[in-house]
Amino acid sequence: MPKVAPKKRDLVMRYVRDFPNETFRSDSNILYCDACDKAVSTTQRFQVTQHIGTAIHIANKQRNTTTVQQFITSSSSNKSTFNSDLCTALIKADIPLRKIDNINFRQFLEKYISDKIPDSSTLRKNYLPDLYKNTLINIRKNISSGPIWVSMDETTDVEGRYVGNIIVGKLNSDYASKPYLLNTEVLEKCNHSTVARFVNDSLGILWPNGILHERVLLFISDAAPYMVKAGTALHVFYPKLVHVTCLAHAFHRVAETIRSEFSEVDFLISTIKKIFLKAPSRVNVFKENYPQIPLPPEPVITRWGTWLQAAAYYCDNFSVIEDVISKLETDAVSVENAKNLIKSTSLKNNLVYISSNTTFLANSITKLEAQNLSLADSLGIVSNTVKKLKEAPGEVGIKIKKKVEQVLSKNPGLKTIEAIANIHNGSNTQTSLQFSVAELGAFKFAPITSVDVERSFSRYKNILRPNRRRFTFDNLKKYMIVNCFVDEEVDSNSNE
């Protein structure tokens, strides 16, 4: 008769009996080594004996640790506090969990720490999910029953996925609460229905026992048409919701209009950027002649206001750039273009116009990006900026004024939020706002920009760097939310 292969349960239990002096235990399906804090393969007997003979196993046995590995069927109270704290520290510092498997790092930790060091899979499988759950518990505790503001945006990541992030914060009349990354998910499509559903599902995570629809007072997004449409759809379920499109982004759109009107300046900025990019010899020419002057800026279009800052730099340092360019060898097309362009009289005139009439816009965007601004202060910045933009002279000034009026008129909740700010400023203007007195007071530190969710995407892209593309999205989501969370109490203590 042919041999019948033993059942896995019988095989595992046999190894437990055969090696009574080892630190093996089993849940009938897995042979687990308590000393090494890992599962041992049981396909062949030699795999078990090989594990027993390893130097790591012998050293771990000698440490005589008492930490018990958490099985799926075990209670969470048996989990190691050290392992949990270690996992938290690695995630908060954005150190990949796999670094714990580095032999040199492990030896260092084992030398100075009496606790047994877990491997990365143990942290990832058994501790990351709990940290994620605890983070959500802390967010719910800090937000409580609100009222809240919500900010949402989406991006396309390096894997080609539509990824949406939801930031929430508590509206409070006493102080500006911390923004919390509540959820990050892959969206099937990027349209108003998926956005509205994503927002609603995320609020279900915040309030699992039932969404408090009347406690969601403010929704901030960009001004994309599908976002505006999503805000309208959400208003059906959240009757007090005010939808404000990001005013910093609105000013960025005005800045883009300015850039489009000065193609010669735009060409200069991009050309000079190419000249000094990865060209140490040219950088040396610049530094040798003008050591006190910073190198030309490298604006990024998606970084709001950086193009205007670059234009201001060229206006202030035009003679420096002109002299450096003249000293460079014409060994590249970019250098040749720059030498021809730098002679243009209209270029100089355009730089003067931009510097004297529009560069303040970059400073306004930077001010709006600051955290903890009151609603009155934020709208004060907006009001002063709009006033200055409308004073810009000439044909370009007319186009700027038209663009400003266009972006503000398409902001659905701007008038409502301005009326609330007027109340905070002491105005006695009669309004028909459907908010209670307490809710109106809670708007004192309401945000009017979506910079918090933009920052979360910057962190997302940093975490998902080229050597970390093996993340499953579920683990990436948990990692992100734990990484981004800052407790109110911890943050206040760190600022003392």
UniProtKB/TrEMBL annotation:
It comes from the Eukaryota. GO terms for molecular function: double-stranded DNA binding. GO terms for cellular component: nucleus. This is CGG triplet repeat-binding protein 1. Residues 118-275 form the DUF659 domain. One of its GO terms (biological process) is regulation of transcription by RNA polymerase II. Pfam families: DUF659. InterPro entries: Cggbp1, DUF659, RNaseH-like_sf. It comes from Sipha flava.
